[in-house]
Amino acid sequence: MGSVASHCVSIASASRVREGILVALGRHFSGDQDVSSQSARSWLTTCFERYDENSAGFVSSDAMLNVVAELSLFRIQDWSADEVSTFCSFFFRGEDVERNFDYRLFLDYLFFPVSQHAPRIKLKKQ
Question: What mean pLDDT comes out for the span 21-50?
Answer without folding.
Answer: 77
